[in-house]
Write a structure and sequence with these properties.
Order of helices and strands: HHHHHHHHH
Largest sheet: none
Number of strands: 0
Distance between the termini: 35 Å
Radius of gyration: 19 Å
Structural class: mainly alpha
Number of helices: 9
Helix content: 55-70%
Shape: globular
Oligomer: single chain
Strand content: under 5%
């Protein structure tokens, strides 16, 4: 690609493509520089560091992912229907864009978490779904962590072909969502604290 027109947005988009092609761990400033046919030093005009680049990737991918999830759950009946649509959109994005998805799992500096519209929208959509089950803090955060751990673990194992039993992977996924729905309906609630506002999911 020509050097002319190089922007932070183009760099981040190219990094996201590279992550899906080669793996998130292979996204480096040197690899991007080669992709654009420029010297490594040229990229520092647009991003401060590799950490900065990967943070921007995480926010880009997080925005794409929550857009897909929000579209999937819109207009659905609260409960199993919404949970299933949310989970399916999450899984589809993780499997279709493994490098981008890996970027969403990195830890982001707290000041960026606080000011990020993407992370706040993710919290709004996720906590909104769980509030329909009658959950309040601290149970909301506990439930978010359970869902995230379940979805992430399943997708990570599925993506590597780790499920070797003859049972259909989709059938097991559907049963897992059924089980989560029952669990959320019967959540062992704790006494509510003064923390009652949705927070970005980390």
């Amino acid at each position: 690609m020509p050097r002319a027109g190089l922007t932070p947005e183009r760099l981040v988009a190219a990094a996201a493509e590279l992550a899906d092609e080669a793996g998130f761990e292979h996204v480096t400033l040197s690899a991007l520089a080669r992709r654009f046919g420029v010297k490594d030093a040229s990229l520092y005009t647009h991003v401060r560091s590799l950490k900065d680049l990967r943070t921007r990737m995480a926010l880009l991918a997080g925005g794409e992912m929550i857009d897909r999830i929000a579209e999937a759950v819109e207009g659905r009946e609260a409960g199993r229907d919404t949970l299933g649509a949310f989970a399916a959109a999450y899984r589809a994005y993780a499997l279709e864009h493994p490098g981008r998805y890996a970027a969403t799992q990195i830890r982001i500096d707290q000041e960026l978490v606080t000011g990020s519209p993407v992370l706040h929208r993710t919290a709004d959509v996720t906590y909104g779904m769980l509030r329909a089950y009658g959950l309040e803090e601290p149970d909301l955060t506990d439930a978010v962590r359970l869902l995230r751990s379940t979805f992430h673990g399943y997708c990570a194992l599925e993506s590597t072909g780790a499920f070797g039993a003859p049972r259909d992977v989709q059938a097991s996924w559907d049963r897992a969502i059924d089980a989560l729905h029952v669990l959320l309906l019967n959540w062992p609630r704790e006494k509510r604290t003064d923390v009652d506002r949705p927070r970005p999911i980390r």
